[in-house]
Structure formats: structure tokens, C-alpha cells
Amino acid sequence: MWQLARPALAFLAATVVALLLRALVLSVLRRWARAPNGWSSLVQAIRVPSILWSVVLGLWIAIEFAGQTERLSLRLSEQLGSVLEAAVILSVTITVANILSTLIRRASERRALGVLITGLGQTVARSVVFIVGLLMLLTALGIQITPILTALGVGGLAVALALQDTLSNLFAGAHLLADRPIRVGDYVKVADTVEGYVVDIGWRSTRVRMLQNVVVTIPNKRVAESIITNYDMPDPRLILLIRVSVDYGADPDLVDRFLVEEATLAVGEVPGLLGEPAPSVRLIPGFGEYSLDFTLFCHVKSFKDQFLVQHELRKRILRRLGAEGIPIPVQVRGVELRKAGGEGRS
């Protein structure tokens, strides 16, 4: 037993010295990470693995001392070497998993990704690293991993086939959160059938609250494959078009001026109506069958504001045109009635 004293003391001394150096280095890194460089999370990621590094260094020095002791058997030296190799694999695996998880979180913060894609990416990255590390550890311990890989391959294929719809919705949800064609709170139209506010983008489905105050749940796969109209991108401001028809006898310049004046006067009085860009009028579509058709262009803050703005502007325009004596034409249809047999009229 006395021949193990020198390697044991060397292990303890080297480990203690390494832990002291670790504490000093981490203190310096924490002080440096307080600056606005965003690396404080990376320092936190290597805090636990650095303890394993200290143990690995102590094991390595202990093995070096053991090699200098002639009384130690070759078998014991091989066992210590296996322990060192396992400790190295374990420390590298934990370090790489923590660093990858931190990098994914920082990338998601820069791109403002959702919690789902961040958590999913971290889980997948850590799982892959730990699986590879476990296989390397088993190989180092002399365990055959070929049967394990075969079983994992067959089992993974069976699980993938059984959960095909669930996995497609899961990855479609991750795609929606990463690409961000829609965001929670946006007013969207999905495939010309569902229109409303996005309430939630989950791992399986997306929930949309329609204007009737009902929530429609759509599988993420259907959303990802559909044509999406997002009324809040690139910004919530919306151009509102109001069509106004007047009699052919009206002066188009006066109609133009009246419409612009009413829209301009309504700015600040009608909630949601914007004064910049200024309202404008165009003789579009133009010459109708029985009227001159004008289009008033104005801007509103968001999609939901257009309803109140249209309501108020139409009332103001109707009163102004009536006060100015400009008639709004009404299509009149004549009906001719004939007796049976086509004789006479009534």
C-alpha cells in the first residue's frame, strides 16, 4: 500500500493546485464578463466542467508518479490510465454540451427567437453531444457499441414512423419560430380561411383568435404549408382605401378637395387615423356606369383601427357632400310586367 502513497499525494496536491488556479481564472473571467460583451453565460457554462479538468490534471500527474514507482504492477497502471481516459471523455463531453447550449441561447437572443426553438435547439444539441460522449466512453471501457448502434437505429426508425405527424408538426413549429412569418400578437390570414390574432405558437399547433372571439387551432404543418398574409409586417400601419361615388355633374376638383379636407380634419378626432402620410384622393376606378368613382387614401395605425376610421369618415363624407349639394347617384332599375300571352302591359 505504501507504493500508492506518492501517486495519491501527487493527485491530491495537483488537484488542489488546479482548483485554486480554477478559482483565480474564473474570478478574472467574471470580472471581464461584467463588461457589455455578453460572455458571462459562457463563463457560467465552463464553471462545472472546470472542476473535472482539475481532477483530470490530478489523475494525469498521479499516473506519471505511478510510472516512476517500480513496485506498482502493470495492471494497476492500465487501470489508472483507463480512469484518466474516462475522465477526459466525460469532462470534454460536459464542456462541449454546455458551450453549445450557451451559444444556441445567445444566437436565439440576437435573433429574438421564441422559447420553443431555443429549448428545442439546446435539448437536441446536448442530447447529440451526450450520446456521442457515451459511445466514446463505452468504447474506451472496452464495450462493443455496434449492437447498441443497431438497436438505436431500428428503434429510432420505428419511433419516427409512429410519430410522423407529431414530429412534422414539431419541426414545423420550430420553423415558424425561427423564420418568423408570424408572431404572437400579429393579425394574420392563413390560407384565406382563418383570419385573426395569433394567440400562441406551440410545439404542435398554432392558435388564432378570430374577430368573433373564437380561437381556431391549426396544426403547425398546415400553417407552414399555407399562404400567410401578415397585416403587422413589416409594420402595423395600414393603407385604408375608401371608395366614394358622385354624380357625373359634380366638379371633380371640388370633390377631391372636400374629401381631403374631411380626412384631414378627422386626424386627431378619429382614433387610429394618421396624419402622416397625408390623405390623398385619386379618380380611381374612374368612370363608372352611372357615377364618377373616387378613392380616398389614408393611413391607420393598425388593422383593427380601419373599421372605426371607415365608419367615421363615411359619415363625415356623406354629410359634407350633402351640405355642398353634390348628389350621390343611386342606380334605378325599371321593371316591366306583361300579362300572360304577351298581350298588353301593366
Can you characterise this structure?
The protein has 346 residues and is of the alpha+beta class. The chain is 55% helix and 16% strand. The protein has ten helices and nine strands. It has helices at 5-33, 40-45, 49-67, 74-111, 115-140, 146-162, 164-179, 220-225, 252-266, 305-323; strands at 187-190, 194-201, 205-210, 215-219, 228-230, 238-246, 273-274, 280-287, 292-300. The longest helix has 38 residues, at 74-111.
Topology pattern, helix = H, strand = E: HHHHHHHEEEEHEEHEEEH
Q: Total domains, how many?
A: 3
Supply Rg: 37 Å
Give the structural class.
Answer: alpha+beta
Strand residue percentage = 15-25%
Low-confidence stretches: none
